[in-house]
Please model this.
Amino acid sequence: MHETTKYSHLPYRRGVGITLFNKEGKVFVGARFGSPDRWQMPQGGIEENEDPLEAVFREMEEEIGTRNAEILETLNTWLHYDVPDYLVPKLWDGKYRGQKQKWIAFRFLGEDSDIKLDAFDKPEFKEWKWVEIEELIDIAMPFKRHAYEHIMRSFQQHAIPTDDDE
Model:
């Protein structure tokens, strides 16, 4: 976890994260606008009076244009990460030092053509791809790597091909 200095007094923003596996056992990642060489799994904030399950399906639809997936597993704990100090004033109106997230693993039930990054007015990702779960650490933003290591270990058992008939 990245240690902040002058923003340590700020709270964490509550959010959800989506580890979306396709039928080959690969994980969805997207490249955000402004970070062309870094990839991440879909994630987003939990709105007031919203529970993590509502938030995760809303975020999935907002970020990738579909919610055609089934839940495989939910992490029991919240994962925290701090953003680097230079980002704190630029993100979330400077109110948070980072995020605490509830991560949920899903199996994608649709076709690649169902994924629409531009389904909403302000797309989060400029491109996307499926990767092996072991690749997550190498392609992630450095301050998210600790959380991604935990996710990788926790959801590794879902990174296997499935039969189409299931």
User: Anything to note?
Assistant: The two ends are 38 Å apart (CA to CA).
